[in-house]
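Practice problem 4.
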């Protein structure tokens, strides 16, 4: 089942030329196109399915600094400001608000980890409050249980996955940018060793710059170009319940289950980190590089089924530019829900927050989280193909940092002062081992 998603009307006219072509209309692609269009570039965005229909509408909506890896924290902080500024600049509503994120725990070890993160975050000017047992129990009174402690990050927030990418897409159109839906990019053209065009299923667009913001499809696309981009998709399942529960926190995380208020007044329920790995040829190819990540996360990951083969996003097959590709056969990745996880999530949520008994399940869906071996995205120009920029592998964090990533890519394209230091994201690092360097999720 797809997640709830607003529709945005776009054009069917393919431009002959563009200053930059963005491939993929998830949150990263739309914010990239938005910041490029704001700088006066003639931008075309091509999306094989619908704007926001893959990961960017299937997530919890958390925009967080809390517990972020040091490599991503600056981008997370900038992104929170950009989410706010976007609404002020455009009058478009992404549902973003700084409701604060609230974590509860009864584990001394977990609380100690959060305290260590708080101490580190202070050094970079990020405020987060550790809560003692009395404070955590009082703030978490909706659970009706005592807690050893917790943490509250007041400057973090959530945005609405159903409306965010479509809202940014409307802003791109207002700025004169072009967006085509149901338009897959099949490949690129080069001249003299540098990028000279993007070939889509509806024809070619001449351009000197292309940004691949293709989410879970990025690695197989890169493979066509001889670029090695280790990426593995983890299938994560989530459900939504109707409005009806009152006095709950807007965004609450516990080890058992996490709960997020949706813009319709209902809640999304999910278990953090839990997912299934659907084996594919690509996963086997990159397995040695993912070993450290799997070792770190083995408790919450379980083997999946044949979903990955059927979907085609991790194919190793080489495709032609003049015939339909796997991306046209699978317009929207809508993997099967893990029913056992949905049942477990729902029962844990009812146990955690009894007020949820006044709600009913309205939807359940799954999404493929596109991960890199170290859990940090790959953002940057591919040295072998000047003009071709990779922006993928957001490893379960890309919604919240979408604005910062889009801004950074626009900085790279226009040669401006980068909004954050881009070195941690350099795709060149994927040639090396990720042992000891895997981000927390
Ligand atoms: C269950 C779940 C919960 C999550 N929770 C959070 C959260 O709370 N906070 C957070 O920050 N992140 C969260 N994430 C992660 C977040 O959703 C992703 O990191 C983010 O949406 C990635 O955005 P993207 O634009 O890179 O990819 P996507 O949203 O997947 O978009 C990529 C787009 O590219 C298109 N595409 C691919 N190839 C081509 C091509 N060749 N031509 C044209 N179009 C193409 C696809 O159709 C797709 O629409 C979660 C993810 C899931 C699945």
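Answer key:
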């Amino acid at each position: 089942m797809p997640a709830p998603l607003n529709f945005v009307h776009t054009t069917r006219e393919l431009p002959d030329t563009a200053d930059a072509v963005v491939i993929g209309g998830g949150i990263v692609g739309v914010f990239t196109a938005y910041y490029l269009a704001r700088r006066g570039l003639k931008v075309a965005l091509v999306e094989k399915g619908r704007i926001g229909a893959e990961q960017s509408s299937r997530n919890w909506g958390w925009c967080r600094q809390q517990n972020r890896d040091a490599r991503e924290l600056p981008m997370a902080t900038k992104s929170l400001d950009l989410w706010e500024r976007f609404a002020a600049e455009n009058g478009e509503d992404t549902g973003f608000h700084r409701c604060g994120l609230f974590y509860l725990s009864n584990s001394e070890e977990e609380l100690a980890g959060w305290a260590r993160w708080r101490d580190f975050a202070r050094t970079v000017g990020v405020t987060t409050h550790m809560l003692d047992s009395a404070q955590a129990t009082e703030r978490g009174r909706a659970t009706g249980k005592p807690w050893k402690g917790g943490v509250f990050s007041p400057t973090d927030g959530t945005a609405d996955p159903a409306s965010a990418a479509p809202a940014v897409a409307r802003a791109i159109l207002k700025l004169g940018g072009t967006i085509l839906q149901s338009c897959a990019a099949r490949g690129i053209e080069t001249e003299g060793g540098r990028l000279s065009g993007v070939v889509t299923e509806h024809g070619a667009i001449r351009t000197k710059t292309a940004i691949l913001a293709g989410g879970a499809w990025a690695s197989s696309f890169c493979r066509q170009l001889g670029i090695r981009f280790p990426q593995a998709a983890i299938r994560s399942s989530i459900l939504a319940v109707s409005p009806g529960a009152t006095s709950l926190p807007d965004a609450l995380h516990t080890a058992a289950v996490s709960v997020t208020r949706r813009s319709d007044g209902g809640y999304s329920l999910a278990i953090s980190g839990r997912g299934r790995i659907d084996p594919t040829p690509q996963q086997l190819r990159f397995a040695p590089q993912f070993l450290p990540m799997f070792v770190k996360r083995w408790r919450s990951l379980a083997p999946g089924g044949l979903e990955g083969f059927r979907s085609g996003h991790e194919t190793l097959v080489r495709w032609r530019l003049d015939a339909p590709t796997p991306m046209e056969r699978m317009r929207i990745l809508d993997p099967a829900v893990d029913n056992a996880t949905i049942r477990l999530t729902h029962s844990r949520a009812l146990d955690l927050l009894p007020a949820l008994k006044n709600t009913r399940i309205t939807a359940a869906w799954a999404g493929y989280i596109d991960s890199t071996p170290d859990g940090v995205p790959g953002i940057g120009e591919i040295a072998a193909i000047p003009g071709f920029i990779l922006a993928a592998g957001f490893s379960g964090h890309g919604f919240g940092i979408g604005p910062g990533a889009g801004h950074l890519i626009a900085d790279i394209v226009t040669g401006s002062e980068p909004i954050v230091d881009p070195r941690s994201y350099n795709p060149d690092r994927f040639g090396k081992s990720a042992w000891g360097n895997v981000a927390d999720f």
